[in-house]
Write a structure and sequence with these properties.
199 residues, alpha+beta, Protein Transport Mog1p, Chain A, 3-stranded antiparallel sheet, 2 helices, Gliding motility lipoprotein GldD
Length: 199
């Protein structure tokens, strides 16, 4: 059954490349946030014949497909975009993992805390890490996912406003839930024969 697990899962091979482990004190949560009205979260399947993956996305978003291996999910009312990037694994999983982890921890200077949640779905061969960055970082939620053999994907949330933890918190929480649904519903179309030209 797909689920997020505790940090004991870090012993798995696909997480063994983690090379940043420092952590700051957690940012105290504000006692209250501005109550904002967001549309109810309903999801629909995203699928493209040129892409090697499917997942469920919020119906209230707009999609821009840059290439077969790159998708942008736009939240116009929240001035935010989730960037998805896909790569074919070609005997370079360690490098892909390091690049994904480096992308997250480059924001450590601005982040007050980075919370890691390993994710496992053996049924669909999806293994990854879900990151929540607290504080005034440029990105607040990221994840990577892989089957460790053929497929690798990263996702990053960016707001097009000056980062401020208090003001973007409600929108961040809303989109973070969407990103959880993305990784939990992610499936690889074909795990045995892939077009290397995508990479």
């Amino acid at each position: 059954m797909p689920q997020f697990k505790g940090l004991t899962i870090l012993s798995l091979l696909f997480i063994s490349g983690l090379f940043f482990s420092c952590k700051r004190d957690s940012l105290p949560k504000p006692t209250a946030f501005l109550a904002l009205e967001y549309p109810n979260q309903e999801y629909t399947l995203f699928e493209n014949k040129n892409s090697n993956f499917t997942f469920e996305k919020n119906k209230n978003t707009t999609i821009k497909e840059v290439k077969a291996n790159s998708v942008e999910i736009h939240y116009p009312e929240m001035k935010a975009t989730v960037y998805l990037n896909y790569k074919v694994v070609n005997n370079n999983l360690d490098n892909l993992l390091k690049d994904a982890q480096k992308l997250t921890y480059e924001h450590f200077i601005k982040a007050d805390d980075i919370v890691e949640q390993p994710y496992l779905n053996p049924t669909h061969k999806v293994y990854g890490m879900y990151y929540t960055l607290q504080g005034d970082a440029a990105t607040n939620v990221q994840f990577y996912a892989t089957d460790s053999i053929h497929n690798f994907m990263t996702a990053s949330l960016y707001f097009y406003v000056t980062p401020n933890y208090d003001s973007i918190y409600p929108a961040k929480e809303y989109i973070a839930e969407d990103m959880r649904v993305m990784i939990e519903t992610l499936q690889w179309k074909n795990q045995s024969s892939l077009t290397k030209s995508i990479n």
